[in-house]
Give the backbone structure.
Amino acid sequence: MSNVALMRFTARTIACAAIVAFAACGGGVAADSRQTSDSSTTQEADSAGAKRESAAVKVDGNIPLGAAVLLRCYPSFVKEYRDGKLEMADGSTIVYNDGREKSFVEKLDAADPEDMFAFDYNMTASTPEYLQDAGRSRCEALFKKMYGSSAAAVQKHLVSVNWFGQRLQFTNVNGAADSLRAVAAELARHPNLKKHLRSSGTFYWRKVRGAQRQSAHSYGMTIDIGVTNGGGGGDYWQWKNPGKSETAKITYSNHMPLEVVEIFERHGFIWGGRWYHYDTMHFEYRPEILMYEKLKNQQ
Ligand SMILES: [Zn+2]
C-alpha cells in the first residue's frame, strides 16, 4: 500500500472506529449527554459524536490515533491537530510528538501527548504486565492548560461532590465532577461495596513521591478510595516492594473488587490497579486512555 493510500486507510479506520466506540466510552457519553438533555438518546449522542469526529479527522487525513482521541475527549481545549501539533482553544500549540527516544522513566517525567499512549491499559489481564503504566504518563503542558497551572488556578474549578456522605472537592473541567457523581450513583446500587469506598483524598497540589513531575491529584480529577478497604487495606507498589526502583521486577497485590473498578471505567476513570506500578486506591478521570485502548484493538 502506498503511503498516501495507507494514510487514507488509517484516517478512515480512525473515523469509523471512533464512531463505533462513542457509545461504549463512558467519558464520551457522559460528556455529550450533558450537552443535550438528560433524556437524550444514545442515537442522538452517536450522531453528535460522529459529526465532531469527522470534522476532526478531516484536518489533513493523517491524524495519529492518540491525537484523534484527545480531540474527541477534550473538545473544549484541543481544537485541531495540524502539522504535528495540537492547536489549543487559547491559540497556543503543543507538539504532539517531540521525536525523542525515551526510557521508561523519561516517558513519565518528560511526556509529550504521544507518550501518553505508549503503554497498554489492559482491562482483561489478571495482573499488569511489566512496565505497562498507561495513564501514569501525562503531558504536563496539556494537563496544566486544561485543569490549571497552579494550585490556585485548579481550585477555581473545584466543586463539591457528595461521596457517600463525604464532601469531596473535584474539578468540573471536562465534566469530571459530573462523571464522579455518576460513579457514585451507580455504586450506591451496590451496598455490598460500600466498605471499599471511603475516600482518603482528591485534590492535592503536589509532585509525585520521589519525582519532579506533578501528581494527578494536583489537577482535581483524581480520587483515592479504599485505604482501609473493609480491613483489607490499600495496595501501593512501593509499600509492597520497599526500596525497588521504577524498572525493578515487583510483586502485585490488590484488595479492590473489580466491580468497583468497572463502574469507574464506565464513566471515564482509569484505575491505578491496572498499572505495573500499582496504586489500587487511585482512580483518575482519563477518558482518552480508555477510548484509545478500545480503538487500537479495533484497528
Ligand atoms: Zn491517588
Q: What stands out?
A: Residues 217, 222, 224, 279, 281-282 surround zinc ion (CB under 6 Å). The two ends are 16 Å apart (CA to CA).
